Structure formats: C-alpha cells, structure tokens
Amino acid sequence: MHLAFKCTYCDGGQGEYVGFAGVCSDDNMRRNVQAGRIQCASGPCRDYCRRGFSGAKPEPPCFEGTLFTEWFASAGLYDSGPKRNLPIPMKRVQKGSIAVFTTRFPDEPREEQRRVVGLFLVGRVGRDRYGSNTLYADPRLRIRFLTATAHKLHFWDYYRNASGEPRWGSGLFRYLRDDQVARLLADAQMVLTSEEDKSVVAETYEAAFGGSIESASRPVQRLADAWTPRM
To answer: Which of 103, 187, 202, 222 has a CA positioned 20 to 30 A from the CA of residue 86?
Structure first.
C-alpha cells in the first residue's frame, strides 16, 4: 500500500517550486491561523500572529515546514479519546511504498481543487522523536514539484472515496492502491519539464512496480473535468 498525505499549504521557500521548505510568510501564516488549521492555530505560529508578527519568527513547528528539506512524514499521535498520545498506525506501508503529498493552494479553497505537490519512495519506516510512525524518503528517489507542475496534477483524478465524491474529511492520510499511484507517476512524468525530474519519477516507478513507466495505464478523460463546483 501507499499513502497520500493531506498538507496545509506552507509557502516557506516558495518560488518556482511549491513551498514546504521553511517558515510561512506572515500573510500565509495569518491565513492558516484564521482558518483554524490544527498545527497553526494552537502553537508558536498563533502566538507570533498575536504579537503582531513582532519578535523572533518561529522555526517550522510542523512537518509541512520541513517536508522538502528533511524529507520525512509522520502519522502523528491520537489527540483525544482512550488512545490519546498513542501513535496512529500506518498499515501495510513499508520500504518501497510511495508517499504522495497533497494540498489546496490558498486561492483554491474547494476540496476538488486538491493538487499533488511532491512524493517520495519510502526508504525506511521508523519512529520520530515523539514516537509517531514515520516514513523517511529514499535519499535519491524523491521529488518536489514545480508550482506549474503541481497545478496540472489533480489528486482526485487518482483517488475516490466510496461515495465517489472529492471529500477528504478527517485524518492526515489516505491509502492508495498500486494502480492509482502508477498512473499518477506516469502522468507526472508527462508534465514534468526537467529531464532529471523525469528520470527520478521513472526510476521511482521502476523501484515500486517493476518494468517501465511507459507501461502504466492512462486515463481516457480527466475525472476532475467532470466535477461541477458546489455553490
């Protein structure tokens, strides 16, 4: 099995590439705090906002801020109930699985607008300093997408809930099947512009599934085109 993670957009290090590589800008931090994002609205970013953005800017307090610099992702701990502070399990995910990272850009608030911003081949499964189940990237087979590339990769083209609607709901991650991730990799390689990035994606496909990425199936029509936004 593979995992797709739901990420709150972090514009730290944003430029030609998507963010997720540093502390958010003041504007993005304010937006995330006001929206009540869990990590943003209850920690040092909230406090920094309340101080009027004065004093020392916080170090990245969340996995989003270091995603594409440290290259790991944790499942976290249960925050309530009888399992409070126990690690959330990740089932059937192992070395050689693929972790996919998704987000909604600030100007795209609807769930059907969720994009894929990067991915990596899992090089190791372990625990972080808090005891959370954690995926660590292969040191070479990992990729952070250009912003233009991410805008072409709609997460809901590759995954559907049982209801068929683009609805994430609660929880940090969702499990993906081989065929879903294989098609995502094939589509990503088509829209990438860097030959080096294309090579990384092709090698990731081969490492995870065997064979050539050209053998992956392609959609007849983008599923996202069929969605009618709800008012």
So the answer is: 103
Which residues are 77's β-sheet partners? 87
Strands 98-103 vs 2-7: parallel, antiparallel or unpaired: parallel
Contact yes or no for 119/107 (Cβ under 8 A): no
pLDDT at residue 219 greater than cutoff 60: no
Whole-angstrom Cα distance, residue 161 to residue 114?
Answer: 14
| Strand order through the sheet with 133-144 | 72-74, 133-144, 115-127, 98-103, 2-7, 173-176
Mean pLDDT, range 133-157, rounded to an integer: 97
Q: What is this structure's pTM?
A: 0.90
For the stretch 4-15, pLDDT in tens is 999 999 999 999
Task: Please check whether residue 103 is in contact with residue 8, taking contact to mean a CB–CB distance below 8 angstroms.
Answer: yes
pLDDT at 117 over 90: yes
Give the side-chain half-sphere CA count within 13 A for 124. Answer: 8
Amino acid code (one letter) for 30: R
Name the band, by pLDDT with cuts 50, 70 and 90, for residue 72: very high
Domain ranges of the chain: 2-22+70-226, 25-59
128 close to 134: Cβ distance less than 8 angstroms? yes
